[in-house]
Fold:
Amino acid sequence: MGVERAAPRVVVRLPTVLRPFAGGVEQVEVEVPGDGRGDGASGVTVAGVFAALELQHPALRRRLTDEQGAVRRHVNIYLGNDNIRDLSGLQTQLSEGDELLILPSVAGG
Structure:
């Protein structure tokens, strides 16, 4: 008999503009079920977190990714000080307790 492991948890911190789509909260703790990737491989990725986040807050996911599942151009997602676009994008590996910070791009002139 194997030992069941708890689903890894990742915190997603939200900017003010996205909080209404997550019940008004500043951050959401997401448990990533199964393999954590959403693609059948092992390990927890940003894509897996987004899939789990969609189960909790479907309207929020639509603000983060487009119809093809790519991160929207005006959305920046940080793992620590690194934008996931500079890492492995949605396939960026995460660990238990990691925090993702979502920030909308700021435009102006």
The radius of gyration is 14 Å. The first strand starts at residue 9 and ends at 13.
